[in-house]
Amino acid sequence: AQSVTQPDARVTVSEGASLQLRCKYSYSGTPYLFWYVQYPRQGLQLLLKYYSGDPVVQGVNGFEAEFSKSNSSFHLRKASVHWSDSAVYFCVLSAGTGYQNFYFGKGTSLTVIP
Amino acid sequence: AQTIHQWPVAEIKAVGSPLSLGCTIKGKSSPNLYWYWQATGGTLQQLFYSITVGQVESVVQLNLSASRPKDDQFILSTEKLLLSHSGFYLCAWSLPGGDTQYFGPGTRLLVL
Q1: Does A100 touch chain B (CB under 8 A)?
Q2: What is the DSSP string of A66-94?
Q3: What digits encode the pLDDT tens for the residues A9-37?
Q4: What is the rounded CA–CA span in Å between residue A76 and residue B58?
Q5: Cβ–Cβ gap A49/B57 under 8 Å
Q6: CATH number at residue A47
Q7: CA of B33, closest CA in chain A: separation in Å?
Q8: Residue B71 has what pLDDT?
Q9: How many domains does chain B have?
């Protein structure tokens, strides 16, 4: 069965520090992977997505993610976080064709402290 | 510009009562539509999706049903609420065949 695991429910980092949010997926087929972010009092927004090719994909606001088939992972990274990055981040798997079935991780709540 | 509205914003309902949650997308024709549910402390689970008017596919069975009576409208309903229906309901849309979903603000439901 398909699933997404985000092992860290909460992460706290200092402003200017680097960040990695972890995501592991379970799917026997070709995964299509996404990171969405939910800022306080806003709806979910797409950060980045991966289908194939270069395993490192760039997103908005300096975020990037690296896909690893051998590790079944899609970790999100940022070199230097800003207080405005405080939000909840969701890793999402689309399984099958047609982008009709989506599986969400539980989310990681990121707090950036000054 | 496309907008997505969900109603109501929040609701408190009694066990056994009926429920109807709505979602409207303006500014985009023939979108794919999705319903998600998140129990408190749980994961967002996809409930339904629809690629066209009158056609709805169920992903997870939760004693809920969905309908798409118009191109821009997606309705989630049940005739008898259970305590387990409490949670957060999100509606989303995407372009036909598109991968990026655009989410509404959600509806919080508390069943007592």
Answers
A1: yes
A2: EEETTTTEEEEEESS--GGG-EEEEEEEE
A3: 999 999 999 999 999 999 998 899 999 99
A4: 31
A5: no
A6: 2.60.40.10
A7: 9
A8: 95
A9: 1
